[in-house]
Amino acid sequence: MIEYDIYEFIEDVNKLASSIIESNKKYSSIYAIPAGGIALAIKLSDILNIPICQYKDINDKTLIVDDLVDSGKTRDRFIQYDFACIHVKKTTPKKSYPTYWINCINQWINYWWENNDKAGIENNIIRILEFIGEDPVRIGLKETPARVAKMYKEIFRGYDTTQKPVITCFPNGQDGIFYNEMLIDEGYFFSHCEHHMVPFFGGYHYSYIPDKMIIGASKIARTIDYYSARLQVAERLVAQVVNEIEQIANPLGQILVMKARHLCKEMRGVKKVNSPFTAIAVRGYFAQNRNGCKDEFMSRIQG
């Protein structure tokens, strides 16, 4: 996470103002995107001697300002106007880039006016509670924003590279036993659908045929848990797990079957209760069904 202080802000606003002046474009007003653009709008208004306007007064000579362009959705709402910001995310679509910007970043940024990232997240959760019609100050909900923020750090730990598990491997045959048959691991997993941010969960069945390396028994489950702890789609999840293991252990073959209930189709939309969806990733010997290994694996997990 980037900590962005007031001194960096002042320096960058001066750079931004210089870029605007050098463009030779004339603006009659500045509009601040709530709430991120307010500090920037005030400072630019002072430097450029351009008044800040309300939303209803925006015209074709209004400069729209915000602190950050991330997904590009806010920028796209004002695509017909010139747009200035301090930061642009590296993942921002090129069509959504602002007219003026200073820094390109690829991390979460904490602006000095936001106090801290946890407070910012809690305020957003409060706004969600208000949006759905709740009273965020009633007794039962007063601590909910803090609890949700804490929970998000736990259930979405898959974005934290420091928590990525190390896949420990051992030389095949080092103890006098060279193993080249199927090894099978089974368990449960929990993830979240990236389309609606609701859970999908179920069981997995994994098998690999070792070559030179044997994988530590717990490492498969830890790898599945790590990649599950992100906003996911089932197809990507199975691929990420087997690709990670392949890079480390390079087994002769792998197969991963993940069968899950998706609440995005059970509690909303089509509302098909207990209708699991299965995603499969197959590599090497299993993809070739060498010596019938894929058939044998499937018969074992179905039996």
Keywords:
5-stranded mixed sheet, elongated, about 35% helix, 3 domains, 4-stranded parallel sheet, GTP Cyclohydrolase I, Chain A, domain 1, single chain, about 300 residues, alpha/beta
Question: What would you say this structure looks like, in words?
Answer:
With 303 residues, the chain is an alpha/beta fold. The chain folds into three domains: 2-113, Rossmann fold; 117-155, GTP Cyclohydrolase I, Chain A, domain 1 (Orthogonal Bundle); 161-302, GTP cyclohydrolase I, C-terminal domain/NADPH-dependent 7-cyano-7-deazaguanine reductase, N-terminal domain (GTP Cyclohydrolase I, domain 2, 2-Layer Sandwich), CATH 3.30.1130. The chain has ten helices and 13 strands. The protein has helices at 6-22, 38-48, 73-77, 117-131, 144-155, 219-228, 234-249, 263-266, 284-288, 293-302; strands at residues 2-4, 29-32, 62-69, 83-89, 103-105, 109-111, 169-171, 183-193, 199-209, 213-215, 231-232, 253-262, 277-283. The chain has a five-stranded mixed β-sheet with strand order 11-8-9-12-13, sandwiched between helices. Strands 2-3-4-5 form a four-stranded parallel β-sheet. β8 (183-193) and β9 form a beta hairpin. The chain is elongated.
Quick gist of this model?
The protein is an alpha/beta fold and 303 residues long. The protein has ten helices and 13 strands.
